[in-house]
Write a structure and sequence with these properties.
- This protein has 415 residues and is of the alpha+beta class.
- The chain has two domains: 100-283, Alpha-Beta Complex (Sulfite Oxidase, Chain A, domain 2), CATH 3.90.420; 292-413, Immunoglobulin-like.
- It is 13% helix and 30% strand.
- The strands form six sheets. Strands 5-4-13-8-9 form a five-stranded mixed sheet.
- A hairpin with a 2-residue loop joins strand 10 and strand 11.
- The protein binds ligand MTE and molybdenum atom.
- Residues 101, 147-149, 247-248 line the site of molybdenum atom.
C-alpha cells in the first residue's frame, strides 16, 4: 500500500517537474542574458560589498515589495498596518513585518526610565526596573498574535483583495520574558484576588482586565521578540503576551498591573472589543481566538501561470491549543483532503500546511479548514453568519475562499 502510494506520488512529482520546467523559465531581459549559465555572472567578477556593510542587516534590495501595508485612517497615530502573509514562508514573522495595531501612536520609551508597578490586592506592592525584570528566570515561547478585528473587514462582502488585507492582522514570533505568575508570586496575591488590570504606557490609556487563572496559567511579560529586544511598535521595552487570546489584551508598553476582585470594565472591554450578537445582546470578555486557517499561496492577487503541479500552502492556528488537522478543498468545499502539517506543531502558534495540487487549467475554488486538538472545526461562512449575523466586528474565523479563473487569476470570493 505504502509503496503504491510512493510510486504514484513519485510519478506525480515527475509529471509536475516536467510541467513546471516547461512553464517557469522566466523570459530573459537582454541585459540579464550575460549573467545566465553558462556565462560567469557580473557579481562573480568583482568583490562584493564590504563585510558589515549594514551593521544591522537589511533585506535584499530586490525584496522591496515585501512590506507592511497601512490601511487608511482618520489620524496617522490610530489604525493598523498589515503583515504581508502572501510573501512569507514558514511560520515566524520577521520583526520588521509584524502587523501593528496602534490606538495612540508609538511612544519612544527610554528603558532606563521605564517601570512596572504591581499593586491592588497583593500582600506587597512592588515596582520593578527593566534591569530587575531581566534578572528573573526567563522563558521563550513561539506564539501567534492576532487582532480580534482580523478578517472582519470582509464580514458583509469580499472588499479585501489579497491575504495581507484579509488576514494580515496576524503574526507569530518567539517571545521571551518572565511568566506573569512569577511576578504575582513575588507580590503575593490576596485570597480574594480574581482579576488583574493591565495598563499600557501610550497616549491611548489602553487598559484591559484579565482573569487571575489565565495570569497564573501562561501569560508572559515579555521584553524580547525573535531574539532581540521588542520593536518600539510592538511595545518596547515591555508588553504582555497572552497565549491564544485576542491581540487587544496583549497590552504594549506595559507599566502597571492592578489586582482586584472583579473585572474593571474599561473602555476597551465595554464600548469596544465586545461582540454584538444577532439578538441585540453583546458578548463581553470573548478572549480566545478560535481555530482558523487561510491559504497564503496561491491567494488573492496571485496568478497561476501554468497547468500542472502547484504547492498550495497556508497557515492554521487556534487559541485553544494545537492544530490537529487541516483539510484543503479545490472545489469550493464539496471534496476535502488532508494537508500535510509542518512539524513541530506548537501550542497556540502558527502552523504551516502544504498540499500538492495539479491544476488542470479549469476554474477552481480553494479553501482550507482547520481543526484543533479540542475537536473544534473552523466554521463555514454560512455557519458563521447564522451564529453571529452581520453586526459584529470581532472574532470572524470562517473558512476563506480564493477563486481561480481559467485565466489563472486568483481573487477573493465568498461562498
Ligand atoms: N498600550 C497599548 N497596547 C495595545 C494596543 C494599543 O494601542 N496600546 N493595541 C492592542 C491591539 S488592538 C492589538 S491587536 C495588539 C497588536 O499588537 P502589535 O501592534 O504588536 O501587533 O496590541 C494591543 N495592545
Ligand atoms: Mo486588536
Amino acid at each position: 500500500m505504502a509503496s503504491t502510494q510512493n510510486r504514484s506520488r513519485r510519478a506525480f512529482l515527475e509529471r509536475a517537474a516536467l510541467a513546471s520546467a516547461a512553464f517557469t523559465a522566466a523570459p530573459l531581459r537582454a541585459q540579464d542574458a550575460g549573467n545566465l549559465p553558462s556565462n560567469i555572472p557580473q557579481w562573480m567578477k568583482i568583490q562584493g560589498e564590504p563585510v558589515n556593510w549594514h551593521p544591522y542587516g537589511l533585506p535584499s534590495e530586490f525584496e522591496k515589495r515585501v512590506v507592511k501595508f497601512k490601511r487608511a485612517s482618520v489620524q496617522p497615530t490610530e489604525g493598523v498596518s498589515l503583515t504581508p502573509l502572501q510573501h512569507l514562508h514558514g511560520t515566524i514573522t520577521p520583526s520588521g513585518l509584524v502587523f501593528e495595531r496602534q490606538h495612540g501612536g508609538v511612544p519612544n520609551i527610554d528603558p532606563a526610565q521605564h517601570r512596572l508597578m504591581l499593586h491592588g490586592m497583593v500582600r506587597r506592592p512592588l515596582i520593578w526596573t527593566m534591569d530587575d525584570l531581566l534578572h528573573f528566570p526567563s522563558v521563550s515561547r513561539v506564539l501567534f498574535l492576532e487582532c480580534s478585528g482580523n478578517t472582519s473587514r470582509d464580514w458583509r462582502s469580499p472588499v479585501s483583495k489579497d491575504v495581507q488585507q484579509t488576514h494580515g492582522l496576524l503574526s507569530c514570533c518567539e517571545w521571551t520574558g518572565v511568566p506573569l505568575a512569577t511576578l504575582l508570586d513575588e507580590a503575593g496575591l490576596q485570597p480574594d484576588a480574581r482579576w488583574v488590570l493591565a495598563e499600557g504606557g501610550d497616549a491611548s490609556g489602553h487598559t484591559r482586565s484579565l482573569p487571575v487563572e489565565k495570569c497564573l496559567e501562561d501569560i508572559l511579560v515579555v521584553y524580547a521578540q525573535n531574539g532581540e529586544m521588542l520593536r518600539p511598535e510592538q511595545g518596547y521595552p515591555l508588553r504582555l503576551i497572552v497565549p491564544g487570546w485576542e491581540g487587544n489584551v496583549c497590552v504594549k508598553w506595559l507599566r502597571r498591573l492592578k489586582v482586584g476582585d472583579a473585572p474593571f470594565h474599561t473602555r476597551q472591554e465595554t464600548s469596544r472589543y465586545t461582540d454584538l450578537m444577532p439578538d441585540g445582546s453583546a458578548r463581553q470578555f470573548s478572549f480566545a481566538m478560535e481555530a482558523k486557517s487561510v491559504i497564503t499561496r496561491p491567494s488573492g492577487g496571485h496568478r497561476v501561470t501554468y497547468r500542472g503541479f502547484h504547492e498550495i500552502s497556508g497557515l492554521a492556528w487556534s487559541g485553544q491549543g494545537r492544530i490537529r488537522r487541516v483539510d484543503v478543498s479545490t472545489d469550493g468545499g464539496r471534496n476535502w483532503r488532508e494537508a500535510a502539517l509542518q512539524e513541530p506543531v506548537l501550542h497556540r502558534a502558527l502552523t504551516r500546511f502544504r498540499f500538492a495540487w495539479n491544476w488542470d487549467g479549469s476554474a477552481a475554488l480553494l479553501q482550507s479548514r482547520a481543526m484543533d486538538e479540542t475537536g473544534y472545526v473552523q466554521p463555514t461562512r454560512a455557519q458563521m453568519i447564522a451564529l453571529r449575523g452581520f453586526n459584529s466586528r470581532y472574532h470572524y474565523n470562517a473558512i476563506q475562499s480564493w477563486g481561480i479563473a481559467a485565466s489563472g487569476e486568483v481573487t477573493h470570493v465568498q461562498v
